[in-house]
Every structure is written in structure tokens, then in C-alpha cells.
């Protein structure tokens, strides 16, 4: 029973159930979450899934249209991985939170039922000050020390996590199963643009909050449909630097990296450095028997018409790099320049079709039974 079909028929991947065991941290994870975790590992051996942030919520010049994405308009398929965000789950009124949950709930369920995969970022509004999720001088407060156990905002943080848990318990599909999600909290923590960044948070506090977050969600709130992703930005050059704030093998399922800077941002390309960093996270995942992914990247406005095959694909295809997915950032619905995936008529669209047709890349139309096991030749 294969879980990859259509244009990659010559490279079908399959495995006998029980062939290997991965170090997934939630021993009570739902069967669908366990199966997804194992199947993502299989994918990473010879392929990579393509993802797009906010792909089905809105796109270049449109929003809230059923079963639509810019990626599908260009290729005929949605991305295999769809990014959503929990940003509106705190710092909002009860009515605004409920509205956001309702919209995202349907998005998650629809993606699961189509056979796609959901990943969740969390642009977490500062619970102790104004300023939103970005650090703003004179407004923002260094809140990681305040939300940890014993901190002045710890109980408030627990209530926010309950909101997330309620959502995780709500995404039940027609088959009665909960949709799995790759949850990626406190991303780009090595930078200084978010209030949880390295400049404002000690290593000890970061690790303590991470461990509490994971433990509370799965052990106290009964969330068992999350895969937990750890993703700094690109400010590391060695495994030691990458793992400087690593909370431990019992608290992370997937090693990620967010890297725009090495892949063309502001016209700057350092692909050698970018590939080196991807190799580091891939090697760490192999050593620890976990997953690795390129959790965020892209080139704003995609001015390079060959970027997809000559920059991204060539980098991903380097020997020994094993990543289960690559995700590019969102396409703003109103901005004429803020987009990271092509749409019909965009200069890189023809090259993106080549990227889509390459045997190495997988989109949603290529997936089948990704939430099931017993995959055999």
C-alpha cells in the first residue's frame, strides 16, 4: 500500500511495518500522528515535501475561497505541507479567538481529509506587555522568565496553553480521528526580533519554558496529535551552536532551521553556508533518530526566475541531506511584493512547474495514505 502516487510512480516509497522505531517523544501519540511521523522519515530518504505558509487561507489578491491556493493555481496541486499560525489564540478578545479557531479548525480538517499535512507556527503575542510578538524597545518585556513555573505570568501562560489544547482536541475529521499537526513554538529563538529571542532570554529560562510547554500539553492537557519542532534561525555554524538551547531528546521530535539569509534575501546568496547548515540539522536528526526539515525559507517577490531549480532544489539535493519538508513563507493578499510562492503570471511560475515535476519534490497530489501504516512494496 503506497502513500506516494501520481507523477512519482517510478519512485514509490514503501516499507514493511515495524522496520524501524523512531524516537517520537509522545508515547501516547495517536496512531495517525505516529504513522505520519514514520512516513515523514521515509519521505526524507529520497524525497522532500513542499510546503507553503497560509496557503489555503489567502493568497496573492484573494482570501477565504474554498479549496484554493496559489500553488494549486500554478501546478494543479496544493502544497503537501500547509502552514497555519496560532498567533490569534492569545492577546485577543474571546470572540476574536473563537473566530480564529473556527477558521483554522476547518482548514486543518480539510487538509487532513485531502491527505495533506499541517504545520503550526506560533507568533505568540507577549503575555506581559504590548508590542505583539516582535520585540519593541520601550514597550516589550522579556517575558520568558515571567511565564516559567513560579513566574508572575505562569498561570496566564497555562490558560493560553489550554486554548491551544482545546483547539488540538477540536480538529476531528469525518473519520472520527484527530488531525495531526507539526507544532513549532518559539521559532527563530536565536535572533533578537521576537520577545523570546536570545537577547532577551537566558538559555536556562528558554529550556525550562520549552520543557514545561511540551510536558503540560501532552501530560496535563492530553494533547496527543502534535509533533514538536525545534527551529532556530540560521545563526549557527556547528552542531554545538545549533544545540546551544536544545531542551533535550525527550522534548523535540523534529530539527528545523529558518533560513532566508543564505538563499537570496536582499540579493545575498551564500548557498555553501546554507547547505552546510541543512547538513548539520540532517546529521543531528540521523544521530538522534528523529526528523529534520527546512522549516522556513523563500525569496520575497521571487525576482530570480530560476530560483526554484537553480537555488532551492540544487541545495536540497546535496548528498546526505535528509529533510522531510521545505516550507516557503506566505503570499500576502494585498501587498504587490510580499509573496514567496508563485501565482499565475509570476516570473518564476514556469520554473516552479519544473520544480513541481522533479521526482525529488512531492506535493499534496502525490500523497496517499500518509496517515496509515503497513506500507509494503
UniProtKB/TrEMBL annotation:
Catalytic activity: Random hydrolysis of (1->4)-beta-D-mannosidic linkages in mannans, galactomannans and glucomannans
Entry keyword rRNA-binding: no
Domain GH26 residue range list: 31-365
Compartments where located: Secreted
Entries under InterPro entries matching the protein: GH, GH26_dom, Glyco_hydro_26, MANB/E
Alphabetical UniProt keywords: Carbohydrate metabolism, Glycosidase, Hydrolase, Secreted, Signal
Name recorded for this polypeptide: Mannan endo-1,4-beta-mannosidase
Lineage per the UniProt record: Bacteria, Pseudomonadati, Bacteroidota, Flavobacteriia, Flavobacteriales
